[in-house]
């Protein structure tokens, strides 16, 4: 089996510490999604547009919870969600580097040689 290009180079503890040092949070972080919603309703024989309405959705105990927001809340939450997603990507990269570092720097299980010429009794 051919190794992927990601795992061909050896990882040093210095690379891990450099990646860990990049973890920084510059403001509040938040889970969920925010969006702007508009509604169209027929009013007096024509279609009238209502909105914008600012909405934040997130999961709490496996249920979707929706909250109405003001425009300033919407803008602040949108920035917090962007920061959270960037931090999550950084953490995933750090988890991947951690796994590589652990597997490459510690001895593994000694592989048993298989003899294909022996038949099982």
- Largest β sheet strand count, sense and barrel closure: 3 strands, antiparallel
Low-confidence stretches: 1-5
Strand order of the largest sheet: 1-2-3
Tally of helical segments: 2
Task: Give the ordered list of helices and strands.
Answer: HEEEH
Gyration radius, in Å: 26 Å
Oligomer: single chain
Average pLDDT confidence is 86
Q: What helical percentage do the residues reach?
A: 25-40%
SSE-based structural type: alpha+beta
**Strand residues, percent:** 25-35%
- CA-based shape: elongated
DSSP, total strands: 3
Give the terminus-to-terminus CA distance: 30 Å
Q: How would you describe the overall organization of this protein?
A:
This protein has 121 residues and is of the alpha+beta class. The protein has a domain at 28-102. The protein is 36% helix and 27% strand. It has two helices and three strands; from the N terminus they run αβββα. The protein has a three-stranded antiparallel beta sheet with strand order 1-2-3, covered by helices on one side. β1 (33-43) and β2 (46-60) form a beta hairpin. α1 (13-21) packs antiparallel against α2. The protein is elongated, with a radius of gyration of 26 Å. The two termini are 30 Å apart.
